[in-house]
Model the fold of this input.
Amino acid sequence: MNIVIVGMGEVGKHIARVLVREGHDVVIIDKNPAALSSAEESLDAMVLQGHGAGARTLRQARVSDADLFIAVTDHDEVNIIAALRAKQMGARKTIARVSNEIYFEDHSRGLHTDMFGGIDLVINPEILVAIEMHKLVRSAGAVAVEDFANNRIEMEHLLVDTGSAVLGKPLRDIRLPENTLIAAIERDEQLIIPSGNDIILPGDAVLVVGRIETMPELEKLFKRERKRFTQKVIIVGGSDIGEHLAQNLIRDDIRVVFIEQDRQRCYELVEDLGDDVTVLHGDGTDMHLLEEEGIAQVNVFITCSKADEVNLTAALLAKNLGVPRAIALVHKPDLAGVCERLGVDVTLSPRLAVARQVLKYVREGQIVSLRPVLDGRGEFLEFIAIAGSRIAGKPIKDVNFPRGANICAVLGKSGAFVPRGDAVIHAGDRVVVFTTPKLRQAVERIFKRPSILSR
Done:
């Protein structure tokens, strides 16, 4: 695959390194000669000095022959113009990193398709990290939580509470919320791909899948409501990431306390979030402030400031004061391992979040994401359907899908949904499949063109 990357910051370097290692032909564009020199020494890629949005530079990079064009500089406008211009010049697919929320009407997803009149995928790293933090907070009520289909679909691994109304009933008699399903049942370390006749028993765990906005209703059915497990969260740093996270936690009816050093930003948070949060003007590394705020009763402590040293110090202090879970934002990905070795439970990097999403987009008709579950006994696969494959253009019931594998969700032009047998998957749709490692190759064949199979 011919790939052009604009921007050799942390994101661009990481993406280029992986793509070169996978055997793709990569062209790198950057204005900084030092960054290009470093890339040329460490990567088997063509480097080109110039403005990433300049027509002359793009012609030199031969974007007209590019299968994928990726613009990930630190400047939104450069990325937008570069991706649009590359598309006009013939690039097959284009991706742009865009951080400023003024460009988005919907701030909840972090991933946007077909934007600005031609960019195939726009990635907002701040929103992606806020979504990941929210997922980590919610996972206190679940064994695991994963997101799919551009953050529209969610999987949760839930223990079934003894008081749940689903116990002892055949699945066909359980009224699930719309656009949700039970993908699998775990019983005595065995994996069951259920049919309508299967019954959930005491001690079972379930893998449930659905649209993100419907999952709280599904959790109630299994008596795994979020607030029951997480009641209070402290967020240090009133960044955009922290504010977006707070908005999600408020919807979960979780008490949120902000600690922010900038007084003006405190006023802005109060104005934006209202009485649903407590905003404290202070230092998140001040032990006395944390103790006064009742740190012993906090379930999750999250640091979202723009300074890595503040995030690390505050998270470690919270752990020493007895907080069960501390999550730290790190802008420099190399610090992540250090933070976790020192005792921080989870570290997240906006730059790595962008890189992960870009790398998913490289493989069309192949697995763009694979999430093992249940110690590897099951796995969720995510595909982009392509024209000419067996899955595209016909009802699912006519595809002869492997027994023991389920199509859990589809993201198409009409939105995200949990499909039934008469649903049709179209080329370009993102499809989430639950299966076992043994059946993975059989599932993959359905998503590939026949010409690929015959090679």
Observations:
- Residues 237 and 305 are 4 Å apart (CA to CA).
- The longest strand covers residues 180-187.
- The radius of gyration is 23 Å.
- The chain is about 30% helix and 25% strand.
